[in-house]
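User:
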Amino acid sequence: MKKILLAVFACFIAGAAMAQDKAAPAGAADASGLNEDQKTLYFLGQAVSAKIKQFEFTADEARYIVQGFSENLSGEKSKTDETYGMKLNAYLAKKQEAIVAKQKEAAKPFLEKMEKETGAQKLPSGVVYIPVKEGAGASPTAADMVKVHYHGTFPDGKVFDSSVDRGSPAEFPLGGVIPCWTEGVQKIKVGGKAKLVCPSDTAYGDQGAGGTIPGGATLVFEVELLEILKDNPMAMMGEKPAKEAKKAAKPAAKKAAAKAEPKK
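Assistant: Predicted structure:
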């Protein structure tokens, strides 16, 4: 809940920034009616407010949020006190639960449809694995570093992230990503491609991610495994301390043995 409150408080900061707009240096306005400084502050307001957009406030709810902003900025006496911080937590939690439930319910027909796709396999976690192109190389393990191209969409086809669109492959330790990827990518051979349909519990859960992915969202990824990289930073970090500890243990063991010897 602290994260939720921080997102809301951030919007107050955005409101303050918008108030400073009046003092922004004057400049040539374009077709939008705003100069560059004003547009920068306007962008800040939109970027920060996007953090609470996930709560799907109604027009009536938004009216009171805007009222709170404007009255606070104008220095009017507040109509509430600090006790409403806890009430806000409860209010947003209730809205979040409703959004998550709606997302999961809406995803059920889609998941059932994907399970019937040609070659589809439903993995133990609930992930639906659909082969697209068979690879000829090895398959990675969760301890491996991999290089992939991917295209991420919501069930309705809307793209939320894509290394393909960016034209730049991604590299990451397979054990350090969402469970859907850790499980699904291990089934792909180098050079192969598969579609991973990820129920929310195997993706970003009830919390969602970054304001872009709502809580409870089912995600779809097309993943092409380009390469298994041997230099896994996580694995190396785990090996180095172990080697150093083993090295340091040798002189300590010798000292202990010497103390244990009976004096002559």
